[in-house]
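Listing S7. Sequence submitted for prediction.
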Amino acid sequence: MFRYLGRVLLYDAKDLKSKMIFERAKRMKMKSGVAAHEINEREVAQEAGLVPPDCVSTEEFEENRKKLLRMLETQKLNRISRREAFLTWQAGQREKGAAQRLARQTRKQEKYKRHHYHSQKGKLLPLSFTDERDLDSPQNSVFSSNRLDSPHPRTASSVTDFLRRQRQ
């Protein structure tokens, strides 16, 4: 009995929760067939995860710390790569939206021009009107040989020439 008390004192529970966890792990060890006087309480505490910091070896601590740092680094890289992928996707969506918006605007402009200007595909056709007298003159003849040599140089007609001629 005195030996049993000596072994119990090897592991000192800091609080009630850790004491209950230790007792449960100890009972499980006893149920597995190990005698009470053969139970190493330090091993039971290690298996239960209750080992105080002074009993942990520095090699294990450094190894666990390195594993944790590697895990954090990989998580950081994964986060960065996911963010970059999202930003490229977002830029693509923005470009696609801009292209759709431009196409929609051009369709609306063409429709407006077709409706208001009575032309096709939104293109305005420049028209110039001439008098019938000018059409009969030899200088306007397509097959006229003396077109360049005519004594009356032809003035360029603009779109509004027909309005000026009617007023005269």
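Caption to Listing S7: primary sequence and predicted structure tokens for the chain studied. The radius of gyration is 49 Å. Helices lie at 2-8, 16-31, 41-48, 58-117, 132-136, 161-167.
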